[in-house]
Amino acid sequence: MFLKGKSAIVTGSTSGIGLAYAKALAAEGAAVMINGFGDTDAIETERAELAAVSGAKALYDPADMTKPDQIAAMVARCHDELGGPDIVINNAGIQHVAPIDEFPIDKWDAIIAINLSSTFHAVRAAVPHMKAKKWGRIINTASAHSLVASPNKTAYVAAKHGVAGMTKALALEVATHGITANCISPGYVWTPLVENQIPDTMKARGLTREQVMNDVLLAAQPTKEFVTPEQVAALALFLCRDDAKAITGANLSVDGGWTAA
Ligand code: NAD
Q1: Rounded to the nearest 5°, which phi and psi values hold at 32?
Q2: In whole angstroms, what is the distance from residue 47 CA to residue 152 CA?
Q3: Distances 67 to 59, 60, 118, 140, 259 between C-alpha atoms, Å
Q4: Which of 51, 95, 200, 213 stands 20 to 30 A from 192 (CA)?
Q5: Complex ipTM more than 0.90, yes or no
Q6: Which residues are tagged catalytic?
Q7: Measured over all CA atoms, what is the biggest interatomic distance in the chain, rounded to whole angstroms?
Q8: Model pLDDT for residues 61-109, shown as the tens digit of each residue
Q9: Regarding beta strands 179-186 and 31-35, do their DSSP bridges make them parallel or antiparallel, or are they unpaired?
């Protein structure tokens, strides 16, 4: 329970990797604010379970990560109702796969807004509270695609490279305030985000479903396995420790060796 007394916001935590982050933080006693879209009853069940596990408050905030005013209000609410935020994990994300000459402009705008700009807005609102406490942990979920590219993912690759660059600049700015800022870059994790891109990848690359699974998704990792949400969350938890304070400005891969290959 090394996070007892700390509060955390995890954006996009109604599913996949974000949900694993929230559970990992709660298991260490943090008061967690979850966020994202989904079934209202399922979200309430998740919120209640997080509170039970942590022994602290847990809140759900429905902020839409395309809306800067809602992001700022979510951070302010966390401050008012949970204290902090001491930890912000920027994780909300979407993906779209299409050739550049057919890439929908609204998908480009949404991917940049949700995957990149939301991170800027959340951090901008949270840093003053962290500075006041002289302690903070900012963890931005980037991707293997912040380091290497894949075809037909121009917006996502651009957004994730942006997250990695922004995190480096941010780390320098907050370094003397007890605040660290790092990226975690997962390889493929089996979540709705990955499952939903299979039909478009089949179409864009002329592949069968089986070929996408084996030759694109699993083949990316030299381990030939999907990464699990829990493996990603374990690194986030480590970054929240006091003895991880020298790790800042880093882009840390949890990718089964993908970006080493
Ligand atoms: P997911 O689809 O399971 O979860 C995405 C979350 O973001 C959900 O909670 C969803 O409700 C939320 N979200 C989407 N749009 C939102 C909006 N406008 N406002 C608020 N919340 C919104 O996906 P995931 O795979 O768990 O992805 C989480 C993060 O991990 C993303 O940033 C993604 O780019 C990154 N990532 C995923 C993988 C992978 O293979 N799954 C690999 C590398 C990086």
Answers
A1: -115, 135
A2: 36
A3: 19, 17, 8, 18, 33
A4: 51
A5: yes
A6: 156
A7: 54
A8: 999 999 999 999 999 999 999 999 999 999 999 999 999 999 999 999 9
A9: unpaired
First to last CA, the chain: 37
pTM: 0.98
The residues that bridge with 10 in the sheet, in sequence order, are 34, 89
Q: pLDDT exceeding 90 applies to what percent of the chain?
A: 100
The two tokens of residue 165 are 């660059």
Q: Is 68 in the pocket of ligand 1 (CB under 6 A)?
A: no
CB neighbours of 214 closer than 8 A, spacing ≥ 6? none
Q: Determine the topology of domain 7-189+227-255 in CATH.
A: Rossmann fold (3.40.50)
Q: Is 194 in the pocket of ligand 1 (CB under 6 A)?
A: yes
Residues 6 or more apart whose CB falls under 8 angstroms from that of 62 comprise 35, 37
* CB-neighbour burial class of residue 122 (10 A; exposed 0-12, middle 13-18, buried 19+): buried
- pLDDT of res. 209: 97
Distance 16 CA to ligand 1 centre (A): 7
- CB of residue 231 inside a 6 A radius of ligand 1: no
Exposed / middle / buried, residue 124 (Cβ in 10 Å: 0-12, 13-18, 19+): middle
Tokens describing residue 43: 């979200």
Decide if 78 contacts 57 (C-beta within 8 A): no
**10, 31, 28: which is closest to 19 by C-alpha?**
10
- Decide: 200 and 206 in contact? Cβ < 8 Å: no
Closest atom of ligand 1 to 189 CA is: 40
- Give the residue among 138, 136, 124, 139 at the shortest CA–CA distance from 178: 136
CA of residue 40 to ligand 1 center, whole Å: 18
- Nearest-atom index, ligand 1, CA of 186: 43
